[in-house]
Fold:
Amino acid sequence: MNGIHDMGGMHGFGRVEREDNEPVFHARWEGRVLGISRACSAHGIFNIDESRHAIERMAPVDYLSSSYYERWHDRNVRLLVEKGVITREELERRMSELAAGKDPATPHSDPKLLDCMLRVTRERTPYRRPGPAPRFAVGDRVHTRHDAPVGHTRLPRYARGKPGVIVRVHGTFIFPDAHAHGQGEQSHALYSVRFDAALLWGESAEPRAPVHIDLWERYLLPDAPARST
Amino acid sequence: MSGTHEHGHHHREPESVLSLRVRALESLLVEKKLVSSEAIDRVVATYEQDIGPHNGAKVVARAWVDPAYRARLLADGTAAIEELGFGGVDLQVVENTPGVHNLVVCTLCSCYPHALIGLPPVWYKSFEYRSRAVREPRVVLREFGVDLPESTEIRIWDSSAELRYLVLPERPAGTERLGEAELAKLVTRDAMIGVAVVKPPAAAAR
Amino acid sequence: MDAVPSREIADMKGAAALPRKNGELVFDEAWQGRIFGMTVAMSHDACFAWRDFQSHLIDEIGHAEREGESSTYYERWLHAFEQLLADKGLLDAVALDERTREFESGRRDDVF
Structure:
């Protein structure tokens, strides 16, 4: 989707600000949000592609005015509600109860879940899957599609309808555009594609600053074959 | 035996008053059985390892001292880090050379090699970095204090899939006699993202 | 001792924040790591509550800043820790001075 999240190349943001002695979390609730996210992952309530798309679906003004972990929290609530795990009314009710000093939840321990959450944190989730043989090879000239899907995609707007060169064939991976929408994995070839800065940005491009993006085959169309020398 | 935890640079100077005082303090507290030196060692190690990108630094240091490992790391980052006991990430390692500097970003969200170098800093996830790194890398790098010659190619890697990118920085000059552990202490998180170069020990000393 | 780091310690804020560079703890000299480790190890062993040390640290930093002292973060940490030990009756300044002189003169060398 042409969402506000797709900000590569946007103008108007200023200097990158760096915080001295930056802590891992700026408030306790941020760590809790991370823990909740890992638990949802461990339970398989949503996959990573759905989770990214949920953040993308925030209203632009909300996206821009939220901190990173606020967006994660919004995502958790949005997906837990959409998947029928909680309702917004339940959440509001629990917030009132807690504000009044009551906490109906009883603490318990769940070693199996903890183990699963730690594994999710430490181990590589296998996004590589068997799939059809790649169509393109290193050195092939391609160009990216310029249609704008309404759903989730990982082709950034700044690289739509642009010519590029395949620099690496990564293998076959789960396809986010399908996986985010409950359409199965549809695994197929993923490539590293190199784009010349001048072709992306025009005259204002810096010299010698090529951008490489990991793109699925379905984002790509072949160019006419290069003349062999 | 007194604990020594030298970080980044090695002073062969007379021991400072403060250092003596702290040794005295440790000595007394150990004597009174209020603490053990081993416990102190473990605390320092745990905090350093939990809160730092030390795993990535070890990978870089190994690549610097072992050319065959470096070749394996560049060919298959995922397998090469597993040799050192690290996992959890499908990794692509990109090498800085005199003519090429690499820079990693995720314009669409904030993908980052967490399992190897910890949680990303806030600036990496910021709109400013995500929007500008792809379009004006040279300006952004200058803001980070990295001034590259015009002739250097800056390769930007937008982490749009589940592969994660790690920059293998250039080994600084004058470090030929440093061992692997000492080299690892020079490698910063910023250098592995590509917004810094690794400085030799003399330059890093404050 | 449970070596899992406490977020209470790692995430202190403001002037009391642990010095970091790139997310990593910075100890410019070895003694700084030792005093950090000593304080944390004793807190883990419940010799004192972390918030007691933290309030001493904040007081020490505030005092040093008001007096315009150029002391570094870990110098202030050391003073705060010594003050805490004295307040809790765990150590006295005289004994510490004496032990420091023993190390200085070379009469004593090992920590054990």
